[in-house]
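On to my pick:
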Amino acid sequence: MKANYATFDVSDYLDNEEVIAEYLSAAAEDANQDVLLAALANVAKARGMAQVAKDAGLGRESLYKALSPGSHPRFETVSAVLRALNVHLAVVPNTDKAEESEPEHASHGA
């Protein structure tokens, strides 16, 4: 007897602003840009791809293409998608890097 499992679709769980923000923040930390593009695509799917495309000023097919793995969308496209999703980028210091480089900076001041 073979078990049948439903396909996991993360977009089914992206149902509120806080979850979406945390999900996109985690994806943005990955060095692989395809991770963020996939996350944006999942959030757009959860919100309705056609509506997100319209709000971003893009055609639906253009949105799919821009968020597909291996694509290299322009910053203005990503920015428009973020606005359409009602989120924005925030730049914060990388405390891990600051802690690693702190002794080096401290020795210069002594």
